[in-house]
Write a structure and sequence with these properties.
The protein is mainly alpha-helical. The protein has three domains: 5-98; 106-348 and 440-460, Fumarase C, Chain A, domain 2, CATH 1.20.200.10; 359-422. 65% of the residues lie in helices and 3% in strands. It is built from 16 helices and four strands. It has helices spanning 5-39, 45-60, 75-87, 102-138, 158-183, 202-208, 218-223, 226-254, 279-302, 317-339, 349-354, 359-368, 373-386, 394-403, 411-422, 438-485, and strands spanning 143-148, 151-157, 185-186, 213-214. The strands form two sheets. A two-stranded antiparallel ribbon has the order 1-2. Strands 3-4 form a two-stranded parallel sheet. Helix 9 packs antiparallel against helix 10 and helix 13 crosses helix 14 (394-403). The longest helix has 48 residues, at 438-485.
């Protein structure tokens, strides 16, 4: 039969987007549900055996295209349709939805999908942080001109910038850990939202499916969207910050401070000399898409009532699993790019001086010798308007100090100020914690490395908990099937 307008223009599209994401997790959740029902005495052993055998048979099948043929409206009914066939029973004999609603199943399965995605994204974020830290340590003494507002500002180093981005990645990974723990709360057992009179065990489902804890409010378990908003937010945040770093990398490549990596480039269709790192442009687009998906998530949630509704929960899913895939690919690309950083032609000290980036150091040298800061700032500003710092002489500086009404300058002070302006590499010796000094950068990098290792351990523990839950579920199903055979 031809599909109705609604089925053709919404249900079909929603099925094609959601079925590949939800079908297999739904089978796993159903295995746990049937085990729990049988253990609670709510399902006769033979009926449980048929359902468990059917679910295992479906999980053992190769993944298929999950084509929408119009026989069912969504993946939930597809699961029931296939389970009845695999279990050798009529659809009317199915018990898999006993004491369970499409509402809590949807909420639970989507949390399972999202938590797996967060684990994968965190792995790449922490990998990128570790690479950034290693490169920061390696290039802590590679002098460059730091920028503010797209203008030369002060001398710094490649390592200083990379260590800073490593700290940003650590911050993102910490948020991912918090988001993971909020996602990892079991809503199954809430049913439509009001629970059930049947003596089910939500805690048993929690253990079998690797959730951290069971829901407290069955209403929030189904109607809530805090975990969805937070997931979209960390995806958008990680990519927004990463896009800023990607733009900086493009500048460094354009200025030939670092080499442009062949593996991340395309050629030109007409200009044979071109090596275009268009991956960076794609990454900016990915960040924009993540922001759009976050905005769509917020709009959907904000447009809904505080109750189960498709627009606040079901319709949000497509934005979050697309965003999750995008975040994973972005962070993987960033991790690879950071590992490719190799200095090519970073600016020589005289080139840094020529940009005016050392003038703050000159003003500070004057201030350190007793010249009031605002006066020192004015003196240097007047000098910059007269000539580049490399052309300043002792007489010129002394004249500028006198012209600013600051009296006769001590020639030793003038010489110290000139030296500060002509030796930008001095910042590499700066001892200030967190600054561009090579030792300080390496300490920052070591901190990033240590934090990445600690967080990697936290996420590994959570992966381990999921594996242990998988083992427990397998054993519980085996036990039920073995009991049925006796």
């Amino acid at each position: 039969m031809p599909l109705s307008v609604y089925w053709q223009n919404h249900l079909r599209v929603a099925f094609e987007e959601s079925a590949p994401q939800l079908y297999r997790p739904m089978l796993h959740a159903s295995l746990a549900h049937v085990v729990m029902l049988a253990e609670q005495g709510l399902l006769p052993a033979e009926r449980a055996r048929r359902l468990l055998g059917g679910l295992r048979a479906l999980l053992a099948e190769d993944d298929d295209a999950l084509a929408f043929d119009g026989s069912v409206e969504d993946v939930y009914y597809l699961t029931e349709q296939r389970l009845a066939a695999a279990a050798g029973i009529e659809p009317s004999e199915l018990d898999v939805q006993l004491a369970r609603s499409r509402n809590d199943l949807d909420a639970g399965v989507f949390r399972m999908v999202l938590r797996d995605g967060v684990l994968d994204q965190a792995e790449q974020a922490l990998g990128a942080a570790a690479v950034a830290a290693a490169q920061a340590d390696r290039y802590a003494d590679v002098l460059i001109t730091g920028q503010t507002h797209r203008r030369p500002a002060q001398p710094t180093s490649l390592g200083h910038v990379l260590a800073g981005y490593g700290e940003a990645l650590i911050s993102q990974a910490r948020e991912m850990l918090s988001v993971y723990d909020e996602l990892n709360v079991n809503p199954l057992g809430s049913c439509a939202f009001a629970g059930t009179d049947l003596p089910i065990s939500a805690d048993r489902l929690t253990g079998l499916l690797g959730f951290r804890e069971s829901f407290t409010s069955s209403y929030e378990a189904v109607a809530g969207a805090e975990h969805l908003v937070r997931t979209g937010a960390i995806q958008a945040r990680a990519l927004a910050t990463g896009a800023r770093m990607a733009r900086t990398l493009l500048d460094w490549m354009t200025w030939r401070w670092i080499a442009t990596p062949d593996a991340y480039c395309q050629g030109s269709s007409i200009m044979p000399q071109k090596k275009n790192p268009v991956v960076l442009e794609h990454m900016w687009s990915m960040a924009g898409a993540a922001a759009a998906d976050m905005a769509a998530t917020l709009n959907n949630v904000g447009a809904a009532w505080y109750e189960d509704s498709n627009n606040a929960t079901t319709d949000v899913q497509q934005h979050l699993w697309r965003g999750g895939d995008r975040a994973l690919r972005f962070l993987t690309l960033m991790r690879g790019l950071l590992g490719e950083i190799t200095p090519l032609e970073p600016p020589a000290p005289d080139q840094v001086v020529a940009t005016g980036a050392t003038t703050t150091a000159i003003a500070e040298a004057l201030a350190g010798a007793g010249v009031p800061w605002r006066g020192a700032h004015s003196v240097v500003g007047a000098l910059v308007r007269q000539a580049p710092p490399a052309e300043w002489t002792e007489d010129l500086v002394a004249s500028a100090i006198a012209g600013a009404g600051l009296g006769t300058a001590d020639r030793a002070v003038v010489r110290a100020a000139l030296e500060a302006g002509l030796r930008p590499e001095r910042v590499l010796d700066r001892p200030q914690t967190g600054g561009p000094g090579r030792d300080a950068v390496r300490r920052t990098a070591a901190g990033v490395t240590a934090a990445a290792e600690a967080l990697t351990g936290e996420f590994a523990e959570r992966r381990g908990a999921l594996r242990r839950a998988e083992d427990a579920l397998r054993d519980a199903v085996d036990e039920r099937l073995a009991a049925s055979d006796r």
